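Colleagues,

For the teaching module next term, I've prepared a clean inverse folding example: a structure given as tokens, and then the sequence designed for it. I'd like students to try predicting residues themselves before seeing the answer, so please don't circulate the second half yet.
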């Protein structure tokens, strides 16, 4: 198990340089670079100047709006307390609007294309500067062979992999916006733990669940066969022997249990991510 406190991380700029405008990130917890099981979880503070054109990704993404309102297209937002699921291959955007704070977890989708980590992306951004420039999320090539104008992320993917980015066909027609406040709590499989089951997505079976733990007693999330990433939405206490606070991220490996002793009522956003390799999924 790994536990990372957001309060111990510094805000870092220049982490999405292929997009336009100011954004600060706290990179909390990440998977294994180069693996189809790789993932990255961060908290982002996106300024009103931040702009991302209409685009798509070759991986899945889940966003939890902590404050403000996350623009995802004309007239569409994820408001504070809501959670959005963005399937691989699906267009969304443009993104521009008032300042907001959001937790984002990105991970390879069922197609098995995987996920590039932030360090690789930033290295490619620097090196591509020899061949062109990034403007408002678009890479504009001025030297060398290749498409003259293309989405910034697609240019980075092609540069790192040596092949054009081929997107998997979208499995959904639009992002799925979950409104946890409209779901009822129900008793979980462990005494003292309540839960809201918000959704299960694609043939990979990615699950989004919120757990609520009452203070004062030790409560255990039993082990499962899959990777689970927990994000503390509210509350504080101990997980095992370590303290957790609001916005702590916890990685629970397959087979591991997670024992909590809350000092205040705690709500955990849980993203369950089954293994692409174990499921023997093949790209569409």
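(Answer key — instructors only)
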């Amino acid at each position: 198990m790994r536990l990372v406190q957001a309060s111990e991380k510094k805000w870092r700029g220049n982490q999405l340089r292929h997009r336009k405008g100011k954004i600060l990130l706290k990179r909390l917890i990440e998977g294994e670079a180069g693996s189809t099981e790789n993932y990255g979880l961060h908290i982002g503070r996106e300024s009103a100047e931040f702009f991302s054109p209409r685009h798509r990704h070759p991986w899945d993404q889940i966003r939890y709006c902590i404050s403000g309102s996350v623009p995802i297209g004309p007239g569409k937002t994820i408001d504070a307390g809501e959670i959005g699921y963005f399937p691989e291959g699906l267009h969304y955007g443009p993104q521009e609007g008032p300042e907001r704070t959001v937790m984002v977890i990105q991970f390879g989708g069922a197609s098995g294309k995987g996920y590039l980590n932030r360090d690789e992306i930033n290295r490619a951004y620097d090196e591509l500067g020899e061949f062109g420039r990034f403007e408002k999320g678009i890479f504009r090539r001025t030297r060398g062979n290749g498409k003259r104008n293309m989405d910034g992320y697609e240019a980075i993917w092609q540069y790192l992999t040596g092949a054009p980015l081929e997107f998997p066909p979208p499995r959904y027609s639009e992002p799925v916006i979950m409104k946890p406040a409209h779901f009822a709590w129900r008793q979980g499989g462990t005494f003292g733990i309540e839960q809201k089951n918000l959704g299960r997505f694609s043939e990979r079976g990615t699950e989004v669940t919120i757990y609520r733990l009452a203070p004062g007693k030790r409560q255990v999330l039993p082990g499962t066969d899959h990777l689970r990433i927990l994000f503390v939405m509210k509350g504080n206490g101990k997980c095992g022997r370590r303290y957790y606070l609001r916005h702590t991220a916890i990685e629970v490996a397959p087979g591991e249990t997670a024992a909590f002793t809350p000092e205040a009522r705690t709500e955990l956003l849980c993203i369950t991510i089954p293994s692409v390799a174990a499921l023997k999924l093949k790209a569409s």
